[in-house]
Amino acid sequence: MNIIDTALAGVKLIEPSVHGDQRGFFMESYNERDFHEQGLLNRFIQDNHSLSAEVGVLRGLHYQLNPKAQTKLVRVTAGEIYDVVVDLRRGSSTFGRWQGFHLSVSNKLQLLVPQGFAHGFCTLTPNTEVQYKVDEYYSPEHDRGIAWNDPALAIDWPTSTPILSDKDSKHPLLADAENNFVYEG
Ligand SMILES: Cc1cn([C@H]2C[C@H](O)[C@@H](COP(=O)(O)OP(=O)(O)O[C@H]3O[C@@H](C)C(=O)[C@@H](O)[C@H]3O)O2)c(=O)[nH]c1=O
Fold first, then answer.
1. For residue 14, what pLDDT is reported?
2. pLDDT tens for each residue of 20-71
3. Which of 24, 38, 41, 167 has the fewest C-beta atoms lying within 10 Å of its C-beta?
4. Hey, which residues are catalytic here?
5. What is the four-CA torsion angle of 107, 79, 84, 165, rounded to 10 degrees?
6. Whole-angstrom distance, CA of residue 162 vs CA of residue 169
7. pLDDT for the residue 185
8. DSSP for 35-104?
9. Domains of the chain listed by start with CATH number
10. Cross-strand partners of 182
C-alpha cells in the first residue's frame, strides 16, 4: 500500500497492493492495521455503496457538521468518477480550495477525505459504482451541502449540465453555508 499526499493537508490517495495472476487479481481493499501503522487512525463504522446509472451524474458537494463529521475512504468498483474535495476548515491556508481526482475500477485508487471537507463526484461511465467507508454514522440533521457550481469554487467538472438530485440542485454557496470546522493542523 502506497500513501500519496495531495495539495490539501490531510487528503490522501491510497494505492493498494494489487496481486494479479492468470485468474485476475486479489487486493486488500482495507486493512486497519496497515492504516494505523501509517498514522491513519480512523475507526470506520459504516460502509456505503451507490450506483449511478448514467454518465454525468453529480452527487455533492456533501458534508456533515460536527459532532457528526465524517472521514470518508472512497473507491470505485465499477466505472470511473471525477472525485472532488473542498477544504471547509476555517483557518486552513487552503480554505475554499478544491482538488479533483480520477478514481476508477482500473486504477483502484482510494481517496481519504478527512473531516472538514465537502465531497462530491461526477460519473464518467455508465453504471458507476462507488463504495466508501465512513467513521461516523449518517445523520440527516447534520447533513449539509454546498452548490456544485459555486462560482467562488470554480470547480472544473467534466460537464456543465450534470444530472442532480433535487436536494443537490438547492445547496447554498460556500459563503452562505453553515460550517463549524476549525483547522487543527
Ligand atoms: C448518505 C446516506 C444516505 N442515506 C439515504 C438518505 C436518502 O434517502 C438516500 C439518498 O441519499 P443522498 O441523496 O444523500 O445520497 P448521495 O447523494 O449519494 O450522498 C452521498 O454523496 C457522496 C458524494 C458523499 O460524499 C456521501 O457522504 C453521501 O453524502 O439514502 C442513508 O440512509 N444513509 C447514508 O449514509
1. 98
2. 999 999 999 999 999 999 999 999 999 999 999 999 999 999 999 999 999 9
3. 24
4. 62, 132
5. -170
6. 10
7. 77
8. HHHTT------EEEEEEE-STTBEEEEEEE-TTS---EEEEEEESEEEEEEEE--BT-TTTT-EEEEEEE
9. 2-176 (2.60.120.10)
10. 90
Q: Which three cell numbers stand for residue 5?
A: 499526499
Full-model pTM: 0.98
Is 119 within 8 Å of 85 (Cβ atoms)? yes
Beta-carbon contacts of 67 under 8 Å, excluding residues fewer than 6 positions away, are 142
The Cα 102–Cα 82 span in angstroms is: 5
pLDDT of residue 120: 98
Stretches in the chain below the pLDDT threshold 70: none
Question: Of 2, 148, 166, nearest to 85 (Cα)?
Answer: 148
Nearest ligand 1 atom to alpha carbon 120:
23
Ligand 1 atom having least distance to the Cα of 74: 25
**Residue 55, all three cell numbers:** 454518465
